[in-house]
TrEMBL record:
Organism, scientific name: Paracoccus aestuarii
Organism ancestry: Bacteria, Pseudomonadati, Pseudomonadota, Alphaproteobacteria, Rhodobacterales
Listed SMART domains: AAA
InterPro entries membership: AAA+_ATPase (IPR003593), ABC_transporter-like_ATP-bd (IPR003439), ABC_transporter-like_CS (IPR017871), ABC_transpr_PhnC (IPR012693), MetN_ABC_transporter-like (IPR050086), P-loop_NTPase (IPR027417)
Keyword field: ATP-binding, Cell membrane, Hydrolase, Membrane, Nucleotide-binding, Translocase, Transport
Protein name: Phosphonate ABC transporter ATP-binding protein
Keyword Ion transport: no
Name of the gene this protein is made from: phnC
Length: 275
């Protein structure tokens, strides 16, 4: 279980990015973290593994007090926290397999990582994970030859290669088309439920959050203003999170995206009929 208590982040400028954020996350639960730009979503994600140092508060991951670790112990602790990035963070010139195996860098001696000689068990696990995310046919392909959805699948497999106790996922669908976004969200949530792996997903797409997350946490100006199931995420709640003007604009963008996707499907059907 992840337990967050009174987490606060104040920058040197005096700007408060997070203010007394508290919640618990049990095993296997997927939380969709929503809110407007500047609400503190990315800061919260990064405070949990101390890529950003919180000003005060406490983060407990099972038996480990993340906020109380020294630098050496923190490096070890980060092995237990998998992170999936919006821009994939792959090494473009390396193969899919080599990128996945980089998830074991915190476990192997330097000489093994430098020469890319990983233990057989790590390699076998990487093969299983690539099959699980649907990339078994792309093991030896360079990362820069992949589509956006494939790159995100590599990022998922790399995070799982760490054998984490928690997944932190930052805008996993921001660069993807609607169909691929649904596939990626479905894959993440299925893996979390099968492996009893808790996850926090910073996500800008409210419709995707509603569809796939078990629970929604809404941030506004660094504070939790909603914490509940997707079924309770009404328009009134969303207006409180985003503001009336921003929520109306988001609804219009979602409707436009749906219309564009429907048109693309119709165009593809017409092309197939013409063949």
């Amino acid at each position: 279980m992840l337990s967050i208590r009174n987490l606060t982040k104040t920058y040197k400028t005096g700007d408060k990015a997070l203010s007394d954020v508290s919640f618990d996350l049990p095993k296997g639960q997927v939380v969709g973290l929503i809110g407007p730009s500047g609400a503190g979503k990315s800061t919260l994600i990064r405070c949990l593994n101390r890529l950003v140092e919180p000003t005060s508060g406490r983060v407990m991951l099972n038996d480990m007090d993340v906020t109380g670790l020294n630098a050496r112990d923190l490096r070890r602790a980060r092995r237990r926290i998998g992170m999936i990035f919006q821009e994939y963070a792959l090494v473009e010139r390396l193969t899919v397999m080599e990128n996945v195996l980089s998830g074991r860098l915190g476990y192997v001696p330097f000489w093994r990582s430098f020469t890319r000689r990983f233990p057989g068990a790590d390699i076998q696990r990487a093969y299983r994970l690539l099959d699980r995310v649907g990339l078994s046919a792309h093991v030896d392909k360079r990362a820069d030859a992949l589509s956006g959805g494939q790159r995100q699948r590599v990022g998922i497999a790399r995070a799982l290669e760490q054998e984490p106790e928690l997944l932190l996922i930052d805008e996993p669908t921001a660069s993807l088309d609607p169909r691929t976004s649904r596939q990626i969200m479905r894959l993440i949530t299925e893996i979390c439920r099968e492996d009893a792996l808790p996850a926090i997903i910073n996500i800008h797409d409210v419709l995707l959050a509603r569809q796939f997350a078990d629970r929604i946490i809404g941030l506004q100006a660094g504070r939790v203003v909603f914490d509940g199931p997707p079924s309770q995420l009404t328009d009134d709640v969303l207006t409180r999170i985003y503001g009336a003007e921003d929520w109306a604009a988001m609804q219009k963008c979602a409707a436009d995206d749906a219309e564009d996707e429907a048109q693309a499907r119709a165009d593809a059907d017409r092309l197939l009929e013409a063949l």
